[in-house]
Amino acid sequence: MANSIRKFIPKPVKKSLLTMTKVLNIAKVTLKSWRRRKVLGKHIQNYILEKFFDPNIGKEYGISKQTKTDLVKMFRLIPTKVQTATNWLYYVHMATVIFNISKKQKGDVIECGCWKGGSSAILSLICKEVGRKLIIADSFEGIPEDDDKHGHFYTHLSVLGYYEKGMYGGSMEEVKNNIGQYGKIKVCQFVKGFYKDSLKKFKKPLVFAFLDVDLRSSLEDSVKYIWSNLSDGSFIYTDDSCDMDVVKFWFDENWWKKNLKQKAPGYVGSGCGLPITPEYSSLGYTRKIKNAEKIFKRKNWFNG
């Protein structure tokens, strides 16, 4: 019956119906893929939150479940009120790391690159809970001139990007106002200027660093002057994990030997970031390790 009916359908109509069928099939596949990504994203989110709410995380500082709940609410709220370029789950992850740093480890947290102060407000809330200062280093004029005129390659995202001088700028007054409204301004200290000048004489013990500086030159300058202040085992997170030109810095043996007299530390999350969202994240990290035997547990991989 169906075949006999098809005989009377004009060819243009048949072609249109075939096209519509293909479009509907593609839409079904796309919807299934979207649903799967959404489910996967929810699983990842729950995993990150479960780690954060582990009673042992922050136990040394007396951080309660209610305090963590209140913090998560602020982590989600602040990016809706202040321009930031980071996912709220990044801060849950970093808070988990900071809350797990021993009280015996003396030092503060430094943020290089704060834009409008959204990330600073969140980090100040975290620092307040662990009794550490947040040192905010920024030019407050936006980024400097980019030396990489060929552009920045985000290979995993198939993106080529360019930066212009002055991008991601926020005045100190604007940043302070945003922190005052949403964070804890009393725990903050400000270091104004481009890193090659402002951090040259920086001398304060540090236990954690968050660098969102965009340019390789700015990354070199900030790391060069804060590295000696970081305690053994410290985490250094960056928000530039997808930028292959910037990531290469962490593997540049010549630069590290010349400037800091050590091997390049490498970088976890190179090219696509830590698994915080299904497709990619811009968050990754390295660690300052002087004494691996002290920081890591020994594993005899090839013994039985």
From TrEMBL:
Any Pfam family hit: TylF
Annotated Gene3D superfamilies: Vaccinia Virus protein VP39
InterPro entries registered for this protein in UniProt: SAM-dependent_MTases_sf (IPR029063), TylF_MeTrfase (IPR008884)
Protein name: Macrocin O-methyltransferase
Native organism: Candidatus Berkelbacteria bacterium CG10_big_fil_rev_8_21_14_0_10_41_12
